[in-house]
Structure formats: structure tokens, C-alpha cells
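Quick start: what a row looks like.
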Amino acid sequence: MRFIRAFLAGALALASTPAMAWGPTGHRVSGAIADRFICGTTRLEIRDLLGVETLADAANWADYMRMQSDPYWSKTTFNWHFVTIPDGKTYTQAGVPPQGDAVSALAKFRAVVRDRTAPLTARRDALRMIIHIAGDLGQPLHSGNARDRGGNDEIVTLRGEQTNLHTIWDSTLIDSEQMSYTEWTDYLLARITSKQAIAWSTPDPVAWVDEARALHPRVYPKSKTIDGDYLYNARPLLHQQMTKSGLHLAAYLNDLFGHCSG
């Protein structure tokens, strides 16, 4: 992909040195990375829907909406931020649950964005949902199992206090490095190769899910006490998945609007 190679050449020259699905920072990073890899025509389509709002700005909109008392946001959309797959199965083997999931929600909102007869507000909000859900699926525990609800019921101890594994991967690991989302973006993009960027730029959400699910042996700790070794050794995987979530989003948006080539 020529535009990926062209971007990386510039990024490696300009990337700054650093001085946390994902929580707010992680979602902004996903949007900011995607913004570097969308092609020009995709950017114009997004601008028509979001105006001056950036992908990083829009990335947390869905979580803010979940705070509302409206049952649609507080209950109906709840299951659209993750997928649940029984151990030993792929996403396709598990199938879509009646209440839907992140993959089926992406398809739903994709159809709305592509429908140019739909109201602008509906298309805008559908795009915001896509931006957020794609970020969610980069977090390995958003491709979870019913046994512990994607690590939410996996209680662990960190620095003498109880928390859960999902929270550690949503935000604790990210926040512990004390970088802003713009610093994170530059830091991550300075460390990927053109080959990795191309390999990770798949627009297929099912592939994202199965890849994330396969990471669970590296995500689940051997001990209920999270120590420094676990946190340190989790960093490369965290960095990979944060980068992937942005590249996945860019690939999905380029494919959605269908104008990119090369």
C-alpha cells in the first residue's frame, strides 16, 4: 500500500521521543493512529460527517453516551463493545448472540454510514460508534469468554489493592507510562515497520477478534498478584495492540468508503 509506505517514511523522520477496551487515552491513540493512515478521499468523507471533530476526538463518544439513563445507551448498546467466545472456539464457530456484539454492531453501523439517504446525524453517530468499537477490539479482553466476562471477574492484586484484569488492560498499563495520547501516538508509530503496518492493516473485524483471542495465554497472569515482571513484560503486547487498533480502524474506514487504492 503506497500511502502506508509513504506515511512511515515521514513518521520515522519526524517522530518525537516520549518525555492510558482501552480507557480514554487508549481510544484517542487508536483514533490518532488511524488518522495517519486513512487516505485522502476517506478523510474528506469523514470530514463531511464529523466536521472539525477528529478521529481522536470522536473515539470516546460511545462511552460518554453509555453514561446516559436512556435504556438504548445504558443497556441495548452494552453488548456492542465486546465479543464473547467460549474457550476453544473461533468467532465464526461461536456465532452472533441474539443481543448482538461488537462485530455485528460494526456491520450495523457500517450500513448506516454507507446509506447516503440516512440523516446526517444518524450517519455521524454511526461513524462515531465504528471508531470506538474498532478501538475496543484491539484490547485483547474485549474478545473475551463467558467464564470471567472478559477478565472483569478475574480478580487480581496490584500494589496491595484488588482490581480486575480487564481494568489493568483497559487503562492501568496505559496510564502507568504517563504519556499523553499524542506522545503515545508518536512513540508507537516510531516503532513499527512498513511490513508490520501493511500486515496489520486488515479491515476484517472477525480476523481482529480471532487474533486478540489467541493472545489470552500471554494476557492472563500465572499468579493472582500482578508484579513488576508482569507489567513490564506486558508492555510489548500492549504497544502492539494499541498500534493494531489504529491500523485496523484506518483499514476499516478506507474499506468502508471504498475510494482508496494502491
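That is the whole record. Residues 5-20 have pLDDT under 50 and may be disordered. The two ends are 5 Å apart (CA to CA).
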